[in-house]
Each structure stands twice: as structure tokens, then as C-alpha cells.
Amino acid sequence: MKTTDIARYALGSLNGARSRTALMLLAMSIGVASVLVLTSLGEAARRYVSGEFASLGTNLVIVLPGRTETAGGEPSMLIGDTPRALTLGDARALLRSSVIRRVAPLNIGSAPVSYGGLERDIPIWGSTAELLEIRHWRMGLGRFLPKAEWDRASPVCVLGQKVRKELFGNQPVLGEWVRIGDRRFRVIGILESAGESLGVAVEDMVIVPVASIQRLFNTSSLFRILVEARSREAIPRVIEHITRTIRERHQGEEDITVITQDAVLATFDDILQALTLTVAGIAAISLGVAGILIMNVMLVAVAQRTTEIGLLKALGAPGQQIVNLFLAEAALLSLLGAGLGVVIGLAGNGLIGYFYPDLPMGTPLWAFAAAIGVALGTGLLFSLLPARRAARLDPVQALARR
Amino acid sequence: MITLENIQRIFPVGDQKVHALRDINLHISAGEYLSIMGPSGSGKSTLLNLLGLLDRPDAGHYRLDGQDITPLSDKQQARLRRERIGFVFQFFHLVPRLTAAQNIELPMMLAGQPVDERQRRVQQALKDMGITDRADHRPDQLSGGQRQRVAIARATVMQPGLLLADEPTGNLDRASGKDVVDILETLQQRGITLIIVTHDPTLGERAQRCLHMVDGAIVNDTASP
Ligand SMILES: Nc1ncnc2c1ncn2[C@@H]1O[C@H](COP(=O)(O)OP(=O)(O)OP(=O)(O)O)[C@@H](O)[C@H]1O
Ligand SMILES: [Mg+2]
Description:
The complex is a heterodimer of chains A (about 400) and B (about 220).
Chain A: H1 3-16, H2 18-56, E1 60-65, E2 86-87, H3 88-94, E3 100-115, E4 118-127, H4 130-134, E5 139-142, E6 156-159, H5 161-168, E7 177-180, E8 183-191, E9 196-197, E10 200-201, E11 206-209, H6 210-216, E12 221-222, E13 224-229, H7 235-249, E14 256-260, H8 261-304, H9 306-314, H10 319-355, H11 365-392, H12 395-400
Chain B: E1 2-13, E2 16-28, E3 33-37, H1 44-51, E4 59-64, E5 67-68, H2 74-84, E6 85-88, H3 100-110, H4 115-129, H5 144-156, E7 162-166, H6 174-189, E8 193-197, H7 201-206, E9 209-214, E10 217-221
Parallel strand pairs in B: 3-8, 3-9, 6-7, 7-8
Antiparallel strand pairs in B: 1-2, 1-4, 4-5, 9-10
Helix pairs in contact in B: 3-4, 3-5, 4-5, 5-6
Magnesium ion binds next to helix 1 of chain B.
């Protein structure tokens, strides 16, 4: 029997039982659509997190004092008095390498900030001009910290949008003086609002020169040193350079922890990949359910078409040909269902994207392939039993009664 | 053409065994016109199904054109059915969703014949049966006589040597029954071997050779006194 004839015959019998066909198409397409939508959601989560990390700064290497990194979280008090403190000198020493592009020392504390009778406790970041580029922030107004000597404690500060709104309302802010702790600082710039960047509320902070914050909190140690490598490939050499330099400066003790963006990102990536696969697996269950429904409906179809099957056998169709005819029906159904499912799934993704524009929705290519493959697989697998049953039918019995 | 030797067919029904065919010996030559008659349950259909390779005997040998078919595989038997045997049923058994032409085309489609050859033969068969104007009608738009003519066209379109008809007029009125018998007899005169199972004595006696069956055995054969 020719392939085109098999296809035409299968299509004919699908068309001959419209409601049955529609039911199976529906089941199949819902299965395929849910695989697509759920994997897309998982993938979106992964992309979202990667995006967040990218916005945190590329090729970023973070140096912390102490051997191992313990709990993270927003520091409320100045941290840095661990075994041996990192100092501005350490940070400056790191600069002497061709693989390092930028270095920004960082101290964080919390202090009351006041202007014209209004006062609030706000996280204070002490750093240098390099911080802006390393963290990929942008200025909304004015300038960032001056590219001056790191040791110069200039009385200038940069505010987040929220701080500005709370202290100044709609009044002009550049050039005004605010009080932070017991010192006065002149406002020279406002950060552009960047929302929440992985737990850092960019809107709700005040940035001052690192030397100023060290004076404010009366310390000489650093909370962190942020290092930007020249390229992704250079990161291992950067790490080596950092550990060697600090060891030399710390009398042979390697009392720092170096975290790379990549390592953290890779972990997240693995977790989210696993999540996507899990979710896809759950969706595949609905495809399995569709498969069982198809099997059921196919069995009914075989029972209803007993006479036709008996006739085909009497006309000389071997069992294998009858199996092929039924499998062709299943394959056609699966492909049509998968096609319909892809359309529904994409529409669903579009809808989610419309209501949650922040989610970078997008279906990975493998999800399409998997959904269609699994649809075809389940369709064929679950039709095998009905098809075999049809092929084994006794033609005499099948033709005996109408 | 056909030789049956000691054919037995036994159906187990519960604990009992129904001997549908007991020790059947029969020789049928090519081109013969044979009718099988007998009371209900005497094994006429069982014999016909066996001759048509739709059923296998429990014992004995069946030779078709000199070839012993009992040891053949299902696939080989299907091939013989396709190429050498045509069936006409009491209930027509047309595929309801296919047109008359498509029903006639079915065996050639199963055989994988080229499309233009199929079209040509379908047209010829429609013309032979006098139903060319019904080519695109579905079975439910046809009369009983027309349906049976489509069924006969389908049974003969592969030009088989053997045509088996199980009560072909059983569901037809007298006039269309006669038409159908005329067509079958014309086919026989052109050389096909025709075997008809019937309850109708006038039809049965038209055949050159009559078999009378009772309780699974041939009790009378006009060819061997
Ligand atoms: N599949 C089966 N299972 C059990 N018994 C069967 C089966 N097929 C036929 N028989 C029995 O075999 C015997 C012969 O049946 P068969 O159909 O050949 O009779 P028949 O002569 O064609 O009768 P009718 O004129 O009513 O068509 C009957 O007793 C019937 O009950
Ligand atoms: Mg009968």
C-alpha cells in the first residue's frame, strides 16, 4: 500500500468520526501546550536570573575578608573586622595587573541621614568612582563620585531616587548639603532608578567616597573589594593574581574568599535548569494522560469499525497493513494535535508575556522538539495496543453481523 | 482448482464442541458454477469462509491451484485472498464513508497499484455493473441492488479466479436479486469459478452443480451420484 494512500485513508477515517477526532486533538493539544508553557516559564525564570546577574556587572570578581563565605544578607552595621581586615592598600595593590580592568573598594554601613529637619536611617555605601561602571549603574542627575585619590575624604555624596524623594520632595537637590551621621556632605548626583538588583535596593542608598565612610565609622577595613576582569577568560588569572597579591601583603596568610559571578550564576543556572526539566516532566504527565485517552478512544474506534477491519482483511490486507493504518491515524492525530498545541502554547506564552512584561518569555527550541516528539511518541505508543487488537481481529466474526 | 481432503472445523463452545464441518472432501474445477444449500447451521458459511482463506481448518488439507495453503503464513494467505479470491456478502459490507468508486478501488489500493491503473479499472467496473452515474455516491445513497453491484465490482476488480458469495441475494428484493444473479452468472460465463451459498432453491438449482449440506457434512453432490 502506498504511503499517500495510507495517509489519505487515515485522514478519511479521522474525518469520518469528527467528534472523536476533535476530542483526541483537544487532549493532545492541551498536553503539548502545557509542556510548552511550563518549560517557557522555567526558561523565563532562568533568563530572568541570568539577566539579573548580568546587570550586577559582568566579569565581576568579589573579594571578601576571611577564609570562607558564610551567610549573606543585607549588612546593617559595618562589617570588616574579620581575622585580618582588607584595606584600601590591599585594593590598590590589586590594580597592578594587566588582567584587571577596574577595582572598587566597598564599605557598607547604616547611618541617619538628615536634611531640613527630615531624618532617616539609610544604608550608606562607601566606594570610589569605579563602582558605577563595575555595577553598571547609571546617573539620573549630576555626577558620580569624583575620580580623585582614594584617600581623599571629600564631603560629597550621591543619592538613590527614593532617598531624594523622601528628603527633598520636588525641590532642587544638586549642591544641597545633607548631614550623614555627624558630618555634612554635598549632593553631587542622583542615581537612575534601576529597581531591585538582586537584593540591592539601588533607590534606597547613599554613596560617599570610601575614605569618607571610613572616617564616618572610624574604621580602616573594607567590607569587600569588587574587581572587574578584562574578560571572562581572564577570570582564573585574576583570581590567581588576587590570592597571590593578598597573601604577600598578609604575611603569607590566604585569609580571603574570592567569589566569581560565574560560579554563582552556574549554580543558579543548574538549579533553574532542573526546575525547568521538573516542570516539563509534570507537563509531560498531561501528555501521558492524553495518550491514555487516545488509547481509549482508539479502542472504541476499533470496536466500532470491526466490520471495516474484517472487510479489509477479507480484501487481502495483512495484519501489518492494518496496524499501519491505525498507527497512521494516531500519527496524524498526534501531529495535528501537536501543531494545535504549539499554537495554543505560543498564545499562552504571549498572554503571560503581556501580563508579566518583566518575564523574558521565550520557548527554547528543544521544548518544541520535545513536545512534538513526545506527542508523536505517546500517540503511537498508546495506539499500538488498539492497532494490534484490530490486526488480530477474526474476519469471520467481524463480518458475521452488521 | 480446489481440493479439500478430510477437512474438519470444530468450534469449542463452553465445554462442548460444535462440529461445524465433519470430514469434508471436495474437488472443484476451474470455471465451475456451484451452489451450496442446506438448513441453517449446517456449516455452509463455515465452508465458504474456509475456501476464502478467512478461516483455517482444524484438520485436513486444502489445495488451491495445486498449492497446499494450510501451512502458509497469514501474510501469504492475505496475498492469495487479495489476488485470487473475491467475496460478496449478504450485508454488502461497503465502507460507509467511501464513495462507490472508492469502495471498488479499495482492494487495488491495498495492493499498492498505480493510481491511473486503478482509475481505469474502476471506470471499467462501474460500466460493467451499469452504475457509472453512481460513482460518487456513498453507500447510504444507493439502493440494495446497487450496493451489491458495487460489492461485486469490488470483489472482481482484482480479476480473481474464484468468486465466493454468501447469500448475495439474501437482503434484496426479487427483482434486484435477479439482476445480481445475472451479473454473477455473466462473470462465471467469462471464466470465473463461482460458489454461491443460498437458501433460495430456485437460485440454487440454476447452478451446474449443487451441494447439499446437513450438520457439517455434504449429504448430496449433484456431480457425484
Ligand atoms: N465462531 C463460532 N463459534 C462457535 N460456533 C460457531 C462459530 N461459527 C459457527 N459456529 C457454529 O457452526 C455451525 C455452522 O455455522 P455456519 O455459520 O457455517 O452455518 P450456516 O450453514 O452458514 O447457517 P446459516 O444458513 O444460518 O447462515 C453452527 O452450529 C454454528 O453455531
Ligand atoms: Mg451462513
